[in-house]
């Protein structure tokens, strides 16, 4: 923490401030410049609020934090190494991480009935996905819109998991439902609208299933890493960060603005694995392939793509869902980029045949 | 709902779409223009998602909603009349509404100890506030920051209520704590970060205490009214909307951008009472008076202002808190504007003396 | 300027950096903390780019500027005093400034014909305005929209000026037209879209007429003050800053988001007078009165309001224009607030009669 | 254009509106729905402002445009075909377009001296770039920052062009300098800050050199296409659109938010070629490679990358510039993606050798 004094600050005031800060257990060190005096604060400053120090004296011009406010989420916390999030699925463990093949998650926005979820699971599995996404509880802007089938949808996800061998990723909206969800889900998702629902973050952090943390619509990267820090601090080290588009001034042609630059930025700041969701990121299925390609080239560890057997009839998010056929094609297009950057998994069968 | 067809759409396709929409229970009516065909949809379209209709055919260029997506929150729902939210307090009912005097809510960000909360309550009461704000459960960006004293703080609020006669407004972050909070609070607050925590909205909507709904950092006015609609649809008609600043590209000198234009906009769209929070809106106590004055002149029904007996020592949000002395002065400044616009309550004593 | 080194930076590197910075004419002073080393830079750092220093070494974590990047625009430049911009008009000098009565500027978006501009001038004069606004050259999003009547409109403004006694404020879009415009205009306006047209800023700074500088749609307050600095540095000390709404994520009900908090923020940072334009700020005439009232209460020095004799027939910006009758009423409403805060000019007649 | 009437609109008023609109040369067609009446307007509506129609009657709820406001820039204008912008360079014509190899533009932010610009030109040419970028006139936030060497820098660009065989792209900030710039430049750049400097747009549209139009910081895609429309309408059909990052709420780790989704969106809306500038888009050289890879995978037609022989000594934008060595490596990385998507030019030599 660095305290910058206004020009002309009286020496007595600078001394008074230094003493007060010593009382807080800090070691202040003065630099006397030509126009200004600056006080460097040495000690445990991570829990301090710069704004609080500001209030000590009207002669303080600015208080600047030079340490990161997150710790467990920082890349330094693992000495620069990426972490791996290993998720058990019926077909064996799948690893999310910088040095592993791209993991594709696919499926419908919401679980509508057994036939559609099982069929979708089988189709996306065949195309190369490792996880099935599908909402049992749906956050909807309108109270009059379909809110998800709830508990019965969880059963259908369990069925689809068993039949397809895919892992399951589904969203928790209410801590009261967490146990039921965690019974079925291999990864528990916290949605964008709940990214700063700190009660929920503490609770998903206190249970053992890996957590997919979507970025809030207006969350800075620092806000997002602080939300991850809540989960990590509560004891759960398995967090995957998912970018799904941010809210900007232009929403005419895309629902959100997909911020792909998070890939290199997060890579620098954190050890946690990164997922990109181009379906929510753009809101329109026709823009998904281009952004999915870009995400792989940018270095994403994972992709989440909405697939629905009949998008026009989908109970939610139809316009951003691909058909299974379109998803098959996309996977072939993605393979081209994935292989070019060395992040595409060789099919097991092909390997066995060699 | 209006469906705009692409130029050159085949007549057969237009007929097919019309038939499909009839199957949805709607009455389509065609207008054949020079370049385009447009289909007007008559019937119950409120629950429909325009995007879903879009998906029926690639020949559809746009689907435009012409009805409001919110109903109970709309001004029309009350035939143009403003609603009144009447809150019982120890000193009698206080009314929030367009045709009533401005209601001032004041108090610290968080309840720190008995002395500070009682002292603050007495000071803000003396200055003319009707409600005490104070957090027992605090949403904090960092898991390492002070999270509020929880249940014990609720007891202190109850004490301050009893001593001062003020009503209490405090935030609920977790539905599990709602009952305890509603026992003490006269108004239950849903914070900006939980504005789209739909599970929580349903629960505060299903209990009887009035709800203060803060606008989310990146919530459009429509999102905000839809969040209010969740509460209204769950059966609670007593919702107050509180603007507390939105997130924009400029955060160097203010923490948020206080959007005062919500006052005339909400007045037009909804019957619900409006509160402005210039403390969170600007983030700095020195900017609070100017924005509080502006809020009254703009026509706000209520103000929420942070007051702390010793801001530099506050456990949270010190920089945006006024001292009780500064708050006394501010109330006098506000009275000037409040009287000018006819929204200032005559002090009870003065009335009695007449 | 403060250079924060990464933890574990080698001493040799810190010394190398210090030497390099001495070569730039700066005096580096080290503070050695528990985890970090910080280098304070003393000397002429105003022209330096923090990012450039960052590049000296990969061991540099952050470079923080502690000086303001603007100088002539800063409040300190005038030792905390507000500046006054005195504008000569046919009816005598009008002063824009913190310690002077509110100045109201009114008129149509664009000058359409002699009758309308003269009539509008007379009406707004009668209601209490001191300046007539009206565009001869109009920045329009579409090349197919009305672009202003240009030179002939300047003649009509000169006529309206003569007839009404009002000062004239009109926009310059092209430096080639500056001379002609400055012949007629008492204040030359630089529009929001040209706020960072640095060539134009230099040219309006090199001529003698006062300049009204509108804030760019996505300009931070610092960007805006730096744009003012261009004009001041070119030799013209008479700059008025005009807020006209910024671009945010919500544009459904208002065209822009009027950022009234600039009033207290600018008051703190700069000595320059402040104007608020609620017409562009909201985009709808029905929201103008509420925001104009708020602007005065917030402490604005001036207001710019669009008035058109027949808004539905206006060639541009009709929906945000008031009729002259509505403007008359508004001036009476504004007087109530203006008087309450002591910023309303006593009518000359009234004074004479005393 | 579609006019939506408020519920309960009197029939007489609907008829009056219809008649008024007929007076404007339009053919109104009514649809009478259950709750609402909607009037479809047939005729030449492109030049009409929806807001103007809105003003005809207080009974009008909304006016919705269903036609695009841009014409020459639209994909339909070329019947769905992409356009090609062919630029003559000393080494022969280079084509920008959807069905052509990726064109790489590289070079420093500003031209500093002969040695640096010639050296950079030779290095980027050797690595595969087709154009040299370099500023003679620089838009800088501060009037005290280096503003470019102006005319003498143009001579150096001419020299570098001759020596290297590269085409030249350089920015025009002032119409007065356009002729001199167009003498040297093969492509004239309009910068982000001047995207809505309509005077300048008209002038670059009236000269024959191709124009690179950067997206404004807060320009919607529609604003951007309308700016292109100004150039096209003035007679110059050769416009390239360059995304360079937009301004959002998060600017802590990147200077702007690079909006890569413009690639598929523009592809759908317009026939014009697309360029991505990851250097300004992110502001930091370390993030450039990842975003450059992503841009190619997304389908961009061109890339603009800042390269400086000694970034820490650059007079502007050092932190976002790559060294020539780093650029060499990057071109090899880009080739991998470029070949995978079939957009990489085979080197002439290699082709000759086959």
UniProtKB/TrEMBL annotation, chains A, B, C, D:
Ranges where the DAHP synthetase I/KDSA domain occurs: 93-336
Family matches, as InterPro entries: Aldolase_TIM (IPR013785), Class-I_DAHP_synthase (IPR052899), DAHP1/KDSA (IPR006218), DAHP_snth_FXD (IPR041071), DAHP_syn_2 (IPR006268)
Species whose genome carries this gene: Dendronalium phyllosphericum CENA369
Entry EC no(s): 2.5.1.54
Protein name: 3-deoxy-7-phosphoheptulonate synthase
GO MF, one example: aldehyde-lyase activity
A GO BP entry: aromatic amino acid family biosynthetic process
Domain DAHP synthase ferredoxin-like: from-to ranges: 1-66
Short name of any one Pfam family annotated for the protein: DAHP_snth_FXD
Keyword terms of this UniProt record: Transferase
Gene from which this protein is expressed: aroF
Top EC class of this enzyme: transferase
Keyword GTP-binding: no
């Amino acid at each position: 923490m660095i305290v910058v004094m206004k020009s002309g600050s009286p020496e007595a005031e600078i001394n008074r401030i230094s003493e007060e800060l010593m009382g807080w257990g800090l070691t202040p060190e003065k630099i006397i410049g030509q126009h200004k005096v600056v006080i460097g604060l040495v000690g445990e400053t991570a829990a301090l609020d710069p704004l609080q120090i500001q209030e000590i004296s009207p002669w303080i011009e600015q208080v600047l934090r030079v340490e990161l406010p997150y710790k467990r989420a920082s890349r330094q916390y693992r000495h620069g190494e990426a972490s791996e999030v290993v998720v058990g699925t019926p077909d064996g463990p799948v690893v999310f991480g910088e040095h592993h093949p791209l993991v594709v998650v696919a499926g419908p926005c919401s679980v509508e009935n057994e036939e559609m979820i099982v069929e979708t699971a089988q189709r996306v599995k065949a195309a190369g996905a490792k996880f099935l996404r599908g909402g049992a509880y749906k956050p909807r802007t309108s109270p009059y819109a379909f809110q998800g089938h709830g508990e019965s949808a969880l059963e259908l996800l369990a069925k689809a998991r068993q039949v397809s061998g895919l892992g399951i990723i589904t969203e928790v909206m209410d801590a009261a439902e967490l146990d039921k969800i965690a019974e079925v889900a291999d990864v528990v998702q916290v949605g964008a609208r709940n990214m700063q629902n700190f009660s929920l973050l503490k609770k998903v952090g206190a249970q053992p299933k890996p957590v997919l943390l979507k970025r809030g619509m207006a969350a800075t990267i620092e806000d997002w890493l602080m939300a991850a820090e809540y989960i990590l601090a509560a004891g759960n080290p398995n967090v995957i960060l998912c970018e799904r588009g941010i809210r900007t001034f232009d929403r005419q042609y895309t629902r959100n603005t997909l911020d792909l630059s998070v890939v290199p930025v997060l890579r620098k700041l954190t050890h946690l694995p990164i997922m990109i969701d181009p379906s929510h990121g753009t809101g329109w299925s026709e823009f998904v392939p281009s952004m999915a390609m870009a995400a792989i080239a940018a270095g994403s560890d994972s992709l989440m793509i909405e697939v629905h057997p009949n998008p026009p009839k989908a109970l939610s998010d139809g316009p951003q869902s691909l058909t299974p056929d379109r998803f098959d094609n996309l996977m072939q297009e993605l393979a081209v980029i994935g292989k070019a950057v060395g992040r595409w998994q060789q099919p097991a069968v092909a390997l066995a045949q060699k």
